[in-house]
Amino acid sequence: MSDHLRLPVFVLGVVIAPGGRLPLRVFEPRYLAMVKWCMRHGEGFIVVTPDGDGFAQRGCVCRIVDFDQLPDGCLGLTAAGDSLVELTAPAQDEDGLWWAEQQALPPEADFEPGEDEADLVNLLVSLSEHPAVQSLDLDIDFESASEVGWRLIELLPFDVPVKQSLIELHNPSLRLEALRDALSSLQAPT
Predict the structure, then answer these.
(1) Does 156 lie in the same domain as 99?
(2) Fewer Cβ within 10 Å of end Cβ, the chain: N or C?
(3) What is the pLDDT of residue 186?
(4) 87 and 139 co-located in one domain
């Protein structure tokens, strides 16, 4: 895949990161066309969150790893997150599908979570035992601070703008610290 490849953009109210899995129900003609294009060209698509009248400038390139026809006739597919990217030059085609150039982000300086991050690792271990999470068939590396942060962002019930701000932190240590702060606001009495 070229560093500057133009890919279709799927604007969703969810965040996915490398290693994540996202079950999708596809029924809009523009997104059915996106799936057809991806399958024909052996390429992925970019999942981004909405932002005002547009979408966030950072998203995740995903590939289709499974698909099936759902009982309601819609296309069900599972997307796997491959890499975080910055988006440039967005343009909408005649069918309403967005396309954008993508620039791969450099790898993060990952580290093994230590005592200071044990509470977050333990939280992720607990979440990973839930049947809904197990159904995603995730291969979680609990010894990677990046992976721990990414999975918690995906699985915890933060508002989309909070999730987007966390995924935009390109430092696993800062991301885990910000996750802890966001968690305390979830637990704070109102």
Answers:
(1) no
(2) C
(3) 78
(4) no
Domain boundary among 38, 70, 104: 104
Number of domains in the chain: 2
pTM: 0.91
Is the pLDDT assigned to residue 90 strictly greater than 80?
yes
Q: Which domain holds residue 59?
A: 6-104
**14 is a domain residue:** yes
98 and 90 in contact (C-beta within 8 Å)?
yes
pLDDT value of position 190:
57
Are 134 and 94 in the same domain? no
Reply yes or no on whether the pLDDT at 12 is more than 50.
yes
Q: According to the model, what pLDDT value does residue 10 have?
A: 96
